[in-house]
Specification:
The chain has eight helices and 18 strands.
Length: about 400
């Protein structure tokens, strides 16, 4: 028999949640079939069958398991499968019990027998104002008398019922959404964030992209340019490539650039490592590989951690400037807007020129405004003279 264990997807990974079994006990699976979906704090990951066999899960969906914990078995044949299920009985599928219609209770109490309703004058006034039927309210006063708090309780129940009917869905804050939720709160509550906005000429970078694409026959994305530009400028401004650790500021030797992307309505940030030492085409290949595997749910936690700076590009959405939020423990993030024709003055004449919006958010506790401004200015200069990055 073959043990199916929770894989260790990164150095920091400790456990994962069993999200969904793709096969049931007794099903025959082939090597490479996706048999299980797990979720860590960073990624959702598909676990594949390591061989052909008869499948048998031993833990329920929703259980939090440790790395390397056995969660299922693959039997070679029926005899081996029968031995497994003797040791680990088949999990019973939890079904929601259907309640007979005649057993369903209404939210408010059933009407009391027809008799005189005992209620205080204030309770009657409140009920009349809100069009409440006193006969369906149970009194808690002396002798079952309906008093003010009983009417207010009935109003609250009515409000909750109305609210529930108005909801489209309730989304639990858990898994990746919980990580985003906590990180965004941590980012804003534990740093002094300030955002600088500017724009840069984009004519040269648009032309250079066209030239590279024509020569190589391969499209190099603007994100590859921006990652290379930011990494190059960080070499000139090492104090930006830093993070806070207690009472210390750590300035990092390695430059690792995260790029924010959307996956299944979640924000994830794969990391390109050492782009300052790589060429544009190599960076583009790495970006494409990370995006492809991210969409397939194949990224490891290590590929989503270890960043020292992040870029986030909302140009596709028609955004010019915005306020990006720093990813802890990093100290800065660059927001990139759309490339658009704008009116500018050249030689005393108004002409149309392609411009791009830039928004730098930085932690003002450890980075002052002047060095942050110089950093952003150097980024603008390289965008306007992108051929210079080919020398690096």
């Amino acid at each position: 028999m073959i043990e199916i264990r929770i894989p260790k997807l990164g150095l920091t990974m400790q456990n994962a949640t069993v999200v969904e079994w793709k096969f049931g006990s007794g099903d025959r699976v082939k090597k490479g079939d996706v048999i299980l979906i797990i979720e860590t704090d960073k990624v959702t990951y598909e676990v594949e069958a390591p061989a052909d066999g008869i499948f048998h899960p031993i833990v329920e969906e929703g259980k939090r398991c440790k790395v390397q914990e056995v969660v299922a078995y693959l039997a070679e044949d029926q005899a081996e499968y029968q031995e497994i299920i003797k040791r680990y009985p088949i999990l019973e599928k939890k079904e929601e019990e259907e309640v007979p219609k005649d057993m369903v209770q209404t939210t408010l109490p059933s009407p009391l027998p027809q008799k005189r309703i005992k209620a205080s004058p204030l309770a009657r006034a409140i009920a009349k104002e809100h069009n409440l039927d006193l006969s369906v309210i149970e009194g808690s006063g002396p002798g079952g008398r309906i008093i003010r708090r009983d009417v207010l309780k009935a109003l609250e129940i009515k409000r909750e019922v109305k609210e529930e009917k108005a909801l489209i869905e309730i989304i639990p804050i858990k898994g990746i959404r919980r990580t985003i939720f906590d990180n965004m709160f941590l980012s804003l509550s534990q740093s002094a964030q300030l955002t600088l906005h500017t724009d840069a000429g984009a004519e040269s970078i648009v032309r250079l992209q066209d030239q590279i694409n024509a020569v190589t026959g391969k499209k190099v994305s603007y994100n590859a340019f921006f990652i290379k530009i930011v990494a190059t400028v960080l070499r000139r401004h090492p104090r930006i490539n830093a993070s806070v650790d207690g009472d210390n500021i750590k300035v990092w030797k390695d430059i690792n650039i995260g790029f924010a992307m959307e996956k299944d309505e979640y924000l994830i940030v794969p990391v390109v490592r050492a782009p300052d030492k790589k060429g544009l085409l190599e960076i583009e290949d790495e970006i494409a590989n990370l995006i492809d595997r991210a969409r397939k749910g194949q990224l490891s936690p290590d590929e989503l951690s270890g960043g020292t700076f992040t870029i986030t590009n909302l140009g596709f959405a028609g955004i010019d400037h915005f306020t990006p939020i720093i990813r802890p423990p990093e100290s800065a993030i660059l927001g990139i807007g759309r490339i658009i024709d704008r009116a500018v003055v050249r030689d005393g004449k108004i002409v149309a020129e392609k411009r791009i919006g830039l928004s730098l958010t930085f932690d003002h506790r450890i980075i002052d405004g002047a060095p942050a401004s110089r950093f952003l200015k150097d980024i603008s200069s390289l965008i306007e003279n992108p051929s210079l990055i080919l020398a690096y």
